[in-house]
Amino acid sequence: MAAVQMDPELAKRLFFEGATVVILNMPKGTEFGIDYNSWEVGPKFRGVKMIPPGIHFLHYSSVDKANPKEVGPRMGFFLSLHQRGLTVLRWSTLREEVDLSPAPESEVEAMRANLQELDQFLGPYPYATLKKWISLTNFISEATVEKLQPENRQICAFSDVLPVLSMKHTKDRVGQNLPRCGIECKSYQEGLARLPEMKPRAGTEIRFSELPTQMFPEGATPAEITKHSMDLSYALETVLNKQFPSSPQDVLGFRCVAQGGVQSVTQSCLTATSTSRAQVILLPRLPKVLGLLCLDRTFYIIGSANDITYILTGELQFAFVCFLLGNVYEAFEHWKRLLNLLCRSEAAMMKHHTLYINLISILYHQLGEIPADFFVDIVSQDNFLTSTLQVFFSSACSIAVDATLRKKAEKFQAHLTKKFRWDFAAEPEDCAPVVVELPEGIEMG
């Protein structure tokens, strides 16, 4: 890890105040990274020091000892780190991955006592990219990570899959309409069709919210089916109602970046997890938000659990990070589906305008990390993002929506037009006649 020029006094303070992650026995040559940075591990590497408190993503790729140029798939995991916290992990030689099992408390305390001796083997956190990392993750809370990460906590670029059926018996192949073993394959397409149905290994799948495939309620009339197929607000509300509790007594904490100049009233309280004294800053202007908790110099928004602004946007950011830094293609597909659902829900923009104001900020930072032509379909040459945002802008820039949302949408549209030369002026495809397939048993009157 390259040395970072820093004032000695500041470096000393960050060493003692920041978090430390120790990873023992990681092989030389391993590609290792934290957040937006990555390096090739040297023989003395033992971890990272001076890490700011909050959510972080650590990722790595193992290398073949016989052929160091052969790099394994990207793997990673999220950690929620605290001020002066020490996390001790170790490399599993057998599995060629970081073992996330917690180290014995005695080992952690012994290492804490010798932390200064360990300093020479720890790389400093690169603060030059911290602002970018925060802009990509400021809605991801510890609760978001716990809800979405796989049960084994490992984010892997390649899915660990198993066949649905063992295929040991002829009846298993017949059940999936597969030919008997030994029958010659006559074409590439036939070969693909013969592949058995696969499923992720239990505990390895990212637990994204289930998005609906039916956009209208049961028993809907043809007119209602058409309406809900064009405006996906009903489908979006079903996701919100299904995934998130509605009791205002349930309280969650969401990490955020402290904003200067906040007009607030402060009071003191005891935290739910300890008897330490913390400060709560009341924010009366924010709907469904009870206050801002300042604990260990980290700020948390305290809001009711049905405050979707901080939950749904957190999932959008989580999916993007898993794709951008974890190389998980399934996360990119979920990001696209979730974004499509949000952008095509016109009625929801009137009801959840704060959600959409934050969505614009999130997209502003995310789109700065991806080439403009990335979203263009190789076959059709259609750009998923421009067509989706075109529908969004046609709704968000209308006179009926919240004035703040409308102004922000107009500025964002102008920014994208200038930066990427995307044309949003043409009529969106959604304005063309839509062919809607009706469920069985429903006929036009």
UniProtKB/TrEMBL annotation:
AAR2 N-terminal domain segment(s): 17-150
Record key words, sorted: mRNA processing, mRNA splicing, Spliceosome
Location of the AAR2 C-terminal domain: 208-424
GO cellular component: spliceosomal complex
Keyword Repressor: no
GO biological process, one term: mRNA processing
Subunit structure as annotated in this protein's UniProt entry: Interacts with PRPF8 (via RNase H homology domain). Component of a U5 snRNP complex that contains PRPF8.
PANTHER family: A1 CISTRON SPLICING FACTOR AAR2-RELATED, PROTEIN AAR2 HOMOLOG
Protein name, entry field: Protein AAR2 homolog
Encoding gene per record: AAR2
